[in-house]
Amino acid sequence: MPKLFKVFGILALAGSAWALLAAEDGPQVRRVGKTVTQFRDGMVRAVISTKYAANHLDREWTVLEFCVAAETGKAVAIDREDVSLVAQDGRVLPLPSQRAMAEGLPDVRNVLQTARIMTDPITGYFPFTDHERPLRFFTIPGEGVVLDEEVVTHTWMGRGWLFFRSPTGKWEGLYELVIRNKDKNLNVRIPFRLPPGDFPEK
Predict the structure, then answer these.
(1) Distances (CA, A) of 119 to 44, 53, 70
(2) What pLDDT, in 10s, does the model give residues 74-123?
(3) Which residues contact 183 (CB under 8 A, 6 or more apart)?
(4) Torsional sign, CA 190, 193, 196, 199
(5) Which segments within 71-198 are labelled E, that is strand?
(6) Sign of the C-alpha dihedral, residues 153, 186, 135, 124?
(7) Which residue from 11, 77, 138, 156 lies 20 to 30 Å from 150 (Cα-Cα)?
């Protein structure tokens, strides 16, 4: 059975060990599959799939599939600068620009084709939404419009791909997808491990 974690943060500890700190009234992070994790905090619901990343650990660039929707009637805005990865050693990897991704990943079309073939069924965790729209932080160069801000609601779910570059040229250890907006009313923190594995419990 999937394990349910109520999490309010992940801290880097001595020896690069991380601990999940439980709080009864905190956000809920639930591992719903080997490479799928769901976050809920009453304001927003977000799900990531790390399946492509888990199968391509030796690549400099990786991509996470991401779905997000508001859990209330209030729309939620997400800027590109709000999104980052925190590595096990505390290093912060910002969401890159479209230009940086296109220059660093010339085979982006093939990467997305591979990622789409092996995608996890993550949209089913949003039964309350009526519509789905693509998140446009990234696109295949020359195709479509790229946006630096996306807005989702309770009925409109956003779905898309988040690209990140590893400064070490590979992906290994614990990571945390963090989304915090300027108004400080959005604080999404989704932990995952590459390659996939269990998280420590308090």
Answers:
(1) 22, 11, 23
(2) 999 999 999 999 999 999 999 999 999 999 999 999 999 999 999 999 99
(3) none
(4) negative
(5) 76-79, 83-87, 92-94, 131-134, 149-152, 156-165, 173-180, 187-194
(6) negative
(7) 11
Beta strands in 50-137 (DSSP E): 61-70, 76-79, 83-87, 92-94, 131-134
Cα(34)–Cα(93) distance, rounded to whole angstroms? 23
**Token representation of residue 35:** 């490479």
Q: Which of 94, 102, 106, 86 is nearest to 192 (CA)?
A: 86
Residue closest to 50 by CA, chosen among 150, 105, 119: 119
Strands 76-79 and 61-70: unpaired
Question: Count of H helices and E strands in the chain?
Answer: 3, 14
User: In the chain, how long is the greatest CA-to-CA distance?
Assistant: 48
Residue 69 CB coordination number (10 Å): 24
Taking the C-alpha atoms of residue 21 and residue 201, their distance in angstroms, rounded to an integer, is 8
- What residues contact 117, with CB distance under 8 A and at least 6 apart? none
pTM, to two decimals: 0.85
**Per-10-residue mean pLDDT for the chain, 202 residues long?**
35 32 66 96 96 97 98 94 96 97 95 95 95 96 93 97 96 96 84 81 36
